[in-house]
Amino acid sequence: MKKILLFFAMLTYCTMSMNAQEVYNSIKSKATETVNNPLVNPIVKQINQFKLDALDYMVIKMKEQMPDSTVTFLDKEAFALNNFITLYTQSILDNRNQPAAHQVKIIKLFIDASYSNPLFNDPDKELVHVYYNNGESLTRFSLDTDWRLAYIAAATEIKKIK
């Protein structure tokens, strides 16, 4: 009986791990599809290119600095990144009829949430801030971001503004 329970526990754990990894793979696959589709709006492509770059950066840094981290950790960060970007775009759309100063405040709120919550404390600021320093980018966020903390920070600030 103990062997059967142990077997089901292991099976459940493996299934959860596979499902968790599917989150990262799904987000990356969808972003890749969007970037490679010639019919997609350039703004949407730019946002999805940021997602791809952030996901790739995250994987590389995790292998370097956190080789023992779990797939679940990566998946949670990928999910939070996706939620952060969704909240960002939704907030921009919700406030498109507001005065320009208010719109800038919303954008800066997200920029600050990203910049203020580093995950790896990467000293290579030129790489980490490639989007952050680009005034033409719609996603002026740091690649070195703890997306779970950044999402919480941005969502909290958005609630205060409403």
Strand content: under 5%
- What is the terminal-to-terminal distance? 56 Å
Shape: globular
* DSSP strand count: 0
Write down the secondary-structure element order.
Answer: HHHHHH
Uncertain residue segments:
1-18
Please state the structural category.
mainly alpha
**Percent range of helical residues:** over 70%
| Overall average residue pLDDT | 89
Helical stretch count? Answer: 6
Largest sheet: none
- Evaluate the radius of gyration: 18 Å
Provide a descriptive summary of the structure in words.
With 162 residues, the chain is mainly alpha-helical. 73% of the residues lie in helices and 0% in strands. The chain is globular, with a radius of gyration of 18 Å. The termini are far apart. Residues 1-18 have low confidence and may be disordered.
Topology record:
Blueprint: H1 2-36, H2 42-65, H3 71-94, H4 100-115, H5 125-128, H6 147-161
Helix pairs in contact: 1-2, 1-3, 2-3, 3-4, 3-6, 4-6
Brief sketch in words of this structure:
This protein has 162 residues and is mostly helical. It is 73% helix and 0% strand.
Features:
73% helix, mainly alpha, 162 residues, globular
